[in-house]
Amino acid sequence: MDCLDVRRQLQAAADCDALVWEHLQTCSDCARAFGFDAGFGQALAAALAVPVPVDLAAQLIAAQRRAAAAAPLRRRRAPRWLALAAAAALALALGIVQWRDAHSLPAQATAHVTAEHEAAALQARQPLPEARIEAAFDAHGLHLLAAPPSGIAYLANCSVGGSDGLHMVMDSSAGPVSVLSLRGRKVDACVDFHRDGLVGRIVPLADGALVMLAREDRDFDGIEAAWRNALEGPRTAARGTL
Questions:
Q1: In the 8-state DSSP scheme, what is residue 185?
Q2: Secondary structure (DSSP) of 130-168
Q3: Neighbours of 236 (CB within 10 A)
Q4: Lowest model confidence (mean pLDDT) among 14-23, 74-83, 89-98
């Protein structure tokens, strides 16, 4: 067995055959090499022979928990797509709110009475004959059950938000009041509102809605009571007298 075979066996296996040991007795070079390798292996084994605590795993887990508790909380950034989706949802919600507001009865009624082609209506001052008012309501499909309120100086057919009605202007102590009688426009309850510098009130009345608009609402109660009396009869007039 030559030196190369001996050194291969010494590197490959811990247990060597008798021929290797015989070679080591006669070859000082291989003996020195074997002695160095054996010493290095023994030193490495001694260095790695560190006793492992029985509860090492529990200690490591506890250390990790302490480190996590002591570390400052980091704010997580939302994914870009999530931020974009939130922005789109907000824009959609705002768009829906704006659309509903623009198509609400307060918006539609205010837009009608403030339109340029209706500007002359507020300038009318001469009261109309009662017979003309009654005829206009009959043509509109509403029969007056009592005399209409006094002081109606303007009367014309109109369409507000797809609902046909009558546009009137009445005199009051606070100035002209625009009154819209909209047949078939259902509302659930009385609503007061402010829009575009005007005050308004919507009243469910006579199978439809009555809308009042003016600079001040000082006489709204009396006007409402007078129209309830005319359209629904004296027993339903409730909130004041004109």
A1: -
A2: HHHHHHHHHHTT---SSPPPS-EEEEEEEEETTEEEEEE
A3: 13
A4: 74-83
Distances (CA, A) of 127 to 51, 89, 145, 152: 111, 53, 20, 5
* Coil, strand or helix at 88: helix
pLDDT value of residue 133:
94
Does pLDDT of 195 surpass 90? yes
Alpha carbon of 92 to those of 83, 84, 87: distances in Å? 14, 12, 9
- What is the layout of strands, in order, in the sheet containing 163-170? 152-160, 163-170, 177-183, 208-214, 198-204, 191-195
Average pLDDT, the chain: 79
Q: Three-class SS of residue 199? A: strand
- In order of their start, the domains of the chain are 3-44 (no CATH), 102-236 (3.40.1000)
Supply the pTM of this predicted model.
0.58
Longest dimension (CA), the chain: 145
Q: Using an 8 Å Cβ cutoff, are 215 and 175 in contact?
A: yes
Q: Are 143 and 153 in contact (CB under 8 A)?
A: no
User: Confidence band (pLDDT; 50, 70, 90) for 238?
Assistant: very low
Pair of tokens at residue 143: 């029969």
Give the closest residue to 228 by CA, choosing from 142, 157, 163: 142
